[in-house]
């Protein structure tokens, strides 16, 4: 990441909005923004599937695994303002292929830490789990507040956007889908 370019761009923005960038509170803003971008965009170029390589085999477990309320922060690629919320990740292992629970949260973080669309983020999480674990089913639900809707435009501060990506048995078996939805609601 070219932090110097970011610093120069932020200095240009401050100049363009006609604020005194030499004012005490703004003097270090370009550097701080560059450091922040380095952190919040650390998922760029990262393959989320790498976080799932630790697969435990022969666990003799083929029932629902759900990690819910995984907090994330991302950046809307249209407006470069945040969206944030919770991801709920469920899968049904096949042939005892399970992964560490924290690995699922790492996939969410990897996908969120880049300029993103919530819809794409949801699909990328499901695809990574489906590709690596080859489970019987995957269900990913993401609930987020989109600051581009809260701060500007329509200014809807209480609205949340919900997206889902469903694969395998969760798509074909209404009972499995209902089970995961009920667990997420509780």
Automatic annotation (TrEMBL):
<feature type="binding site">
    <location>
        <position position="148"/>
    </location>
    <ligand>
        <name>Zn(2+)</name>
    </ligand>
</feature>
<dbReference type="GO" id="GO:0005525">
    <property type="term" value="F:GTP binding"/>
</dbReference>
<dbReference type="InterPro" id="IPR001474">
    <property type="entry name" value="GTP_CycHdrlase_I"/>
</dbReference>
<comment type="similarity">
    <text>Belongs to the GTP cyclohydrolase I family.</text>
</comment>
<comment type="pathway">
    <text>Cofactor biosynthesis; 7,8-dihydroneopterin triphosphate biosynthesis; 7,8-dihydroneopterin triphosphate from GTP: step 1/1.</text>
</comment>
<dbReference type="Pfam" id="PF01227">
    <property type="entry name" value="GTP_cyclohydroI"/>
</dbReference>
<keyword id="KW-0479">Metal-binding</keyword>
<dbReference type="InterPro" id="IPR020602">
    <property type="entry name" value="GTP_CycHdrlase_I_dom"/>
</dbReference>
<dbReference type="GO" id="GO:0006729">
    <property type="term" value="P:tetrahydrobiopterin biosynthetic process"/>
</dbReference>
<keyword id="KW-0547">Nucleotide-binding</keyword>
<dbReference type="InterPro" id="IPR018234">
    <property type="entry name" value="GTP_CycHdrlase_I_CS"/>
</dbReference>
<feature type="binding site">
    <location>
        <position position="76"/>
    </location>
    <ligand>
        <name>Zn(2+)</name>
    </ligand>
</feature>
<dbReference type="InterPro" id="IPR043133">
    <property type="entry name" value="GTP-CH-I_C/QueF"/>
</dbReference>
<dbReference type="GO" id="GO:0046654">
    <property type="term" value="P:tetrahydrofolate biosynthetic process"/>
</dbReference>
<protein>
    <recommendedName>
        <fullName>GTP cyclohydrolase 1</fullName>
        <ecNumber>3.5.4.16</ecNumber>
    </recommendedName>
</protein>
<dbReference type="GO" id="GO:0008270">
    <property type="term" value="F:zinc ion binding"/>
</dbReference>
<feature type="domain" description="GTP cyclohydrolase I">
    <location>
        <begin position="6"/>
        <end position="184"/>
    </location>
</feature>
<dbReference type="GO" id="GO:0003934">
    <property type="term" value="F:GTP cyclohydrolase I activity"/>
</dbReference>
<dbReference type="GO" id="GO:0006730">
    <property type="term" value="P:one-carbon metabolic process"/>
</dbReference>
<keyword id="KW-0378">Hydrolase</keyword>
<keyword id="KW-0554">One-carbon metabolism</keyword>
<keyword id="KW-0342">GTP-binding</keyword>
<dbReference type="GO" id="GO:0005737">
    <property type="term" value="C:cytoplasm"/>
</dbReference>
<comment type="subunit">
    <text>Homopolymer.</text>
</comment>
<keyword id="KW-0862">Zinc</keyword>
<dbReference type="InterPro" id="IPR043134">
    <property type="entry name" value="GTP-CH-I_N"/>
</dbReference>
<feature type="binding site">
    <location>
        <position position="79"/>
    </location>
    <ligand>
        <name>Zn(2+)</name>
    </ligand>
</feature>
């Amino acid at each position: 990441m070219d932090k110097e370019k970011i610093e120069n761009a932020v200095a240009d923005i401050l100049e363009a909005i006609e604020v005194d960038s030499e004012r005490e509170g703004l003097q270090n803003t370009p550097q701080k923004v560059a450091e922040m971008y380095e952190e919040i965009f650390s998922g760029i170029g990262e393959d989320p599937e790498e976080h799932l390589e630790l697969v435990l085999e022969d666990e003799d477990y083929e029932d629902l695994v759900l990690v819910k309320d995984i907090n994330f922060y991302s950046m809307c690629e249209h407006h470069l303002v945040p969206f944030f919320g919770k991801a709920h990740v469920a899968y049904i292992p096949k042939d005892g292929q399970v992964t560490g629970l924290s690995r699922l949260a790492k996939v969410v973080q990897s996908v969120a830490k880049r300029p993103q669309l919530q819809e794409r983020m949801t699909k990328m999480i499901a695809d990574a789990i489906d590709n690596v674990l080859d489970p019987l089913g995957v269900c990913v639900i993401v609930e987020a507040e989109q600051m581009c809707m809260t701060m500007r435009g329509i200014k809807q501060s209480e609205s949340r956007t919900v997206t889902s990506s469903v694969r395998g048995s969760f798509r074909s078996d209404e009972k499995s889908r209902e089970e995961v939805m009920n667990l997420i609601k509780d």
